[in-house]
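Anyone opening a protein record will find just a pair of labelled lines. With that in mind, the following record should read easily:
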Amino acid sequence: MRTFIAIELPKEIKEYLARVQNKLKASGADVKWVEPANIHLTLKFLGEIDENIKTKVIASLSEIAAGRDSFIVGLSSIGAFPGIRSPRVIWAGLSLGDEDVKEIAKKIESDLEKIGLAKEDREFSSHITLGRTRSAKNRSELARMLEDPPETQQGPLEFYVSEITFFKSTLTPKGPVYEPLHKAILKINQPVL
């Protein structure tokens, strides 16, 4: 089964990011946008695993979560990899909770390497993928819009993270279908939003 580990986003955050996507679509760029219902913050993509590894991943995530306090994440700017001038992956960054997310991702990486899963070559970067360009069509217009990103909401965009979700991803002609396999609950230490 094809799997990944992520932080799920609340409905209102997904709706905000869908509005950002809709404004960026005006660029006419050839982008494969992530379906708003599927938008999440990936901590680690595992790829194909078997039942034995699945069981070990669940045990590892439960242990990691039990040792971590829940926390707040806040969204910041919209950006792109490798850079705004040549956008290939369009993303939303974090203004709050970035260190917490990085620490959890690092712990997941380290613990899963011990059970035989390959370590990532590149350093983890906290971001929420919104879309990927498929060609150079109108890429310069998209880059111009990213330099002056569309504002769609005033005020803080923050949410409370209380769990880490282990997902199965099934690829279909209509796009990926995500099914939660396990939710690892963080220690309750609910900060005030």
The helical segments are 11-25, 51-66, 98-114, 139-147. The chain has one domain: 2-185. Residues 98-114 form the longest helix (17 residues).
